[in-house]
Amino acid sequence: MNTASKISPTNPRLGALLSDVSRGNIKIPAFQREYVWKDDQIMSLLDSIYRGYPVGSLLLWSTKETINHERDVGGFALPLTPMDFPVNYLLDGQQRLTTLFGVFNSDAATKDAELASRFDVSFVPATEEFLHSSVADPAKSINLRTILDTTKLLPELGRFSSEDQKAVATLTERFKDYEFPVVTIRDRTNIEVCRIFQRINSSGTRLSTLELLSAWTWSNEFNLINEIAGLLEKLEDVNYGELSEELVLRCLTAVVVGKIDAEELVDIPPSDLIDGMSRLKQAIFASVDFLEKELRIKNVVFVPFPIMLVSLVGFFSRNLKPDASQRGSLKRWFWHCAFTQKYKAGTNTAVLEDLRSMEKLAEGKAVFDEVAKVSPDIFRKTWRVNSTVAKASICMLAQMEPRSFLTGALVDLGVAMSAYNAREFHHIYPKAHLSAQGIQFHQSNIIANICLLSSSDNRAISDESPVTYMAKIPSEKKADIAAGAIIPMEVFSGTKSYADFIAARSVALAAAAEKLIFTGGV
Questions:
Q1: Cα(160)–Cα(118) distance, integer angstroms
Q2: What is the mean pLDDT of residues 114-136?
Q3: Under 8 Å between Cβ of 32 and 206
Q4: In DSSP terms, which residues pair with 222 in a beta bridge?
């Protein structure tokens, strides 16, 4: 069978489509989300079909493979199908199909009476309106659950005028004969279906690969969705809860098969995934511990490239107790990735290369000894805390035991690096001071003009001229303060022009970055 014949577009009438659902020929598998549509979306869908507007297509997967943990449609029970009986699993269009099935079966037995009540919709022939039955006049409206069943419809028609009867007949015809575009996938492997599923982007929320993988790997002992949700909840306690599900899946893939595409997990036995999740939990917390203790990064927001976690997890899943040499290699790797922007382009290839190197490092082999030049120009880039260079620079400053300018006290990294707080970062040559000299914001708001300060010193300095506030720096602590901020002593007086200050500090920052790449430490 060629590829084209494996994907079949059809246009069944709505009545036939709903009949397939009633017979159990179309099922909603467990990886789909719960019903989330609002009432206005229900009415909009009905009105669109009534007026013959396109409402999008459905995507079905026809297979004899049984997907565990199926759900009923909108709480309405569906019949069981015989083993080896082909079933069409709904991959995209759940909200629309659930709405339509619910509206035309709102009086059926249900496990979710509250949801079923939302599907109780009536049509007002005189105004061509769709209203919830609770607000519609029963004498002037007809419930939609009657219009597709002739035995229910005929007794209802007698109470309407001839004109309204024509409107009801038009309503019935438009819904019964509405052609719903359906695309059916046949004879595809699980991985192929996963790839198709990943690329689905309908008018609703983009579907998650995690949900599909959870359905394939589900067992009474293991639910991938719950496992990852529980892991993210625990990571929240250590300020790493902002990791995405997709990134955690990539980490799991690295642990289980040494790769990063989650679709590689599709055919993995559940027992291997259970073991992989156990190893992932240990490895990801070991990675967080390394970032906190070795690099003083207390929040994932400051990791230059979040995908760096995949490589770190790859190492710690193989070696939970690295020796001093291995920790040094990990630090050199971190700084090399951060300042060379290694993961900015061709990320997947770079991560896969690093995963292979992490395996070698875990075995005690020497890796990550690259030497790299860092251009001072990168520190002239705009200061934005979400930029990779800015994050790398913040992490570098955190290694230097930064001190607040006016008191000389160590900056509390537990505060400064636990969450982004603008008051912990200071423009050394204040923006307002520079603006008064005609220096524009895009010139003053650059990385080389940023340092870590306590919020109290930040407020005290405010927009003061550097020549004024730098004169207040304790002379006996000035050298330590300058070193902690990576500011050359010769420009730490405020008497130098802004251009001279930036030139000197950019060179100093680049030299510090190169040292970290070469040695792993300050």
A1: 25
A2: 95
A3: no
A4: 219
Kindly tell me the sign of the dihedral angle through the C-alpha atoms of 352, 356, 362, 365.
negative
Report residue 333 as tokens.
Answer: 């790797």
Domain segments of the chain as ranges: 4-186, 208-362, 376-519
CB 215 within 8 A of CB 89: no
Yes or no: say if 124 and 140 are a contact pair by the CB < 8 Å rule: yes
Task: Read off the tokens for 49.
Answer: 């079909």
Q: How far is CA 464 from the centre of its chain?
A: 41
> Are 125 and 168 spatial neighbours (Cβ–Cβ below 8 Å)?
yes
Query: Looking at the chain, how many residues does it have?
Result: 522
**H-type alpha helices, 218-269:** 224-236, 245-257
Ramachandran region of residue 107, left (φ > 0), alpha (ψ -120 to 50) or beta? Answer: alpha
Token pair listed for 113: 């009476």
* Lowest-pLDDT range of 38-47, 136-145, 256-265: 256-265
CB atoms within 10 A of CB 455: 18
The pLDDT, as a whole number, for residue 202 is 44
Amino acid at 102: G
> 38: Cβ–Cβ under 8 A, 6 or more apart, which residues?
none
Query: Is residue 350 within 8 Å of residue 343, measured between CB atoms?
Result: yes
By CB atoms closer than 10 A (0-12, 13-18, 19+), residue 342 is buried
Dist. CA 159–CA 146, nearest whole Å: 14
Rounded Cα–Cα distance for residues 373 and 511 (Å):
9
**What is the mean pLDDT of the segment spanning 80-87?**
68
Give the mean pLDDT of 30-52. 87
Q: Output the CA angle 59-35-58, nearest 5 degrees.
A: 10
pLDDT given at position 123: 97
